[in-house]
Write a structure and sequence with these properties.
single chain, about 220 residues, alpha/beta, Rossmann fold
């Protein structure tokens, strides 16, 4: 890659921050989710969605626009989130690592859902293996919620960091989905080591796929 093309790519990514301000999104991360939805169509109109790590609400805005008035999104975060002007959005302040997490989410949304999302990140320590391990821990907690709440055929998207535990986590997710992909949307910062694991077609906790596709 030439120096000039690198500069252009960096400038394009910087534009996502400005675009978020212009379009009223609460974070530039909204464009990462929009790009993944555009590529994989894993959220549809009318879907019921649980979003883990929802603060400050940028992803929630994108999901609300995608599912429309007949859908619903429940945003979950340990930090309080300012209300959004969407009737199909609800929030709950909750630490998903707590023992009450599954019960609280089920009380708020008893029915099975179509999609579980997680954009959670740990507090960054600066020690890479520690941060990676903490991120995988959050990804596993998110997977537990997905196994509890997803309908058969539902979809799961979760943020991970590259590192030594990623392959093991991928194998765990693959036992429950027909297709599992690693995704890095164009809006991701060049310096970031984050990826997203996308599980399509939930099989249920008791089923094992005979074959799965990966990329």
């Amino acid at each position: 890659m030439t120096k000039n093309s690198s500069w252009i790519r960096k400038r394009q990514r910087d534009q996502y921050f400005r675009l978020a301000k212009e379009k009223g999104y609460r974070s530039r991360a909204a464009f990462k989710l929009k790009q993944i939805i555009r590529s994989y169509k894993f959220i549809a109109r009318g879907d019921r969605v649980i979003e883990l790590g929802a603060a400050p609400g940028g992803w929630t805005q994108v999901v609300a626009e995608t599912v429309g008035n007949n859908g619903y999104v429940l945003g979950v975060d340990v930090q309080p989130i300012s209300p959004l002007d969407y009737p199909q959005v609800g929030f709950v302040t909750l630490d998903i690592a707590s023992e009450l997490a599954a019960k609280t989410i089920t009380d708020k949304l008893p029915a099975k859902v179509d999609v579980v999302l997680s954009d959670m990140s740990p507090n960054i320590s600066g020690t890479w293996e520690l941060d990676h391990s903490r991120q995988i821990h959050l990804a596993r907690k998110s997977f537990e919620i997905a196994q509890l709440k997803l309908r058969i055929g539902g979809n799961f998207l979760v943020k991970v960091f590259q590192g030594s535990e990623l392959d093991t986590y991928l194998q765990e997710v693959r036992t429950s989905f027909r297709t599992v992909r690693l995704v890095r949307p164009p809006a991701t910062r060049a310096s970031s080591a984050e990826l997203y694991v996308l599980g399509l077609g939930y099989l249920g906790m008791s089923e094992m796929p005979q074959n799965y596709r990966e990329s």
